[in-house]
Amino acid sequence: MEFKEINYERRGEIAIITFNRPEVRNCVGPQTHLELLQAWTVFREDDTAKVAIITGAGDKAFCAGGDIKSGDRLVPTTPGEIAAHNRGERPGILGPTRWTDIYKPIIAAVNGAAYAGGLEWACFADIRIAEEHATFGVTCRRWNIGLADGGTQRLPRIIGMGRAMELIITGRVIDAGEAERIGLVNEVVPKGKSLARAIELAGFICQLPQSAIHTDKEAAVRGFGLPIAEGLRIEAECFNRLVHTPEIAEGVRRFIERDHPDLQKGGEPVTPGIPRG
To answer: Could you tell me which residues are beta bridge partners of residue 137?
Structure first.
């Protein structure tokens, strides 16, 4: 694969997808859109890639949204394309942001400004690690441009409707500390350290059995916001798909025999699991 506006890198079982246009604050243009589609397709379909990390090049921006200044069209313009987009037959404006079926873990290493579509990409991840100088905001509000890559749907699910509506309506920019306080960010790290911390966390996750992570993420994503009875039905469906597989049998054996990866390795724990005294 050859990319011009993103990087796709493998470090063992970890895939790192980097917005690579630091000269324009890692904004997404039409070519970036196509490359993101290809990169995320590779990750989704590659069973050897267990965790994805998304980050930005440089130290100024994670991603500052769509590259509006380029003059290239990002949005559908013909009636047919608009109708297809409305029906959910297109992946998103800034890449595959409308995909909801990647059930492998995704971590965002937010190394600077995450504005508008960049905030939406941060919300695409399951876990967000922000550098202390990172900032977040629906800055497109100032130019009467709407959110089109999941911001109106994912942001309320992450931080709650009240806080999300304030950010969406006002366009107020918040720093990493406030983002952590309201639950948008899971962890704040020093400048230049978000990718290293994301790789460390991804490495921990890779040490864990993967099947139940996938079915539990699927149940959480599909069931969120539904009536509890329907959510529980989805959870049961996902659980029962896995429960009689050899992977579960192996997990039960490991539990009974105390074959925990941390105990097996000795020394420092290799997973974020049970602390040992």
So the answer is: 115
Provide the token pair at 92: 């998103």
Q: Is the pTM of this model over 0.85?
A: yes
Tens digit of each residue's pLDDT (9 = 90 or more) over 177-193: 999 999 999 999 999 99
Contact 106, 54 (CB under 8 A): yes
- Asked if 26 contacts 68 with a C-beta cutoff of 8 angstroms, the reply is no
The domain locations on the chain are 6-206, 211-265
The whole-angstrom separation of Cα 277 and Cα 235 is 34
Question: Which residue in 144, 135, 138, 130 sits closest to 163, CA to CA?
Answer: 138
Q: How far apart are the first and last CA of the chain?
A: 46
- CATH architecture of residue range(s) 6-206: Alpha-Beta Complex (3.90)
Tokens linked to 208: 């864990």
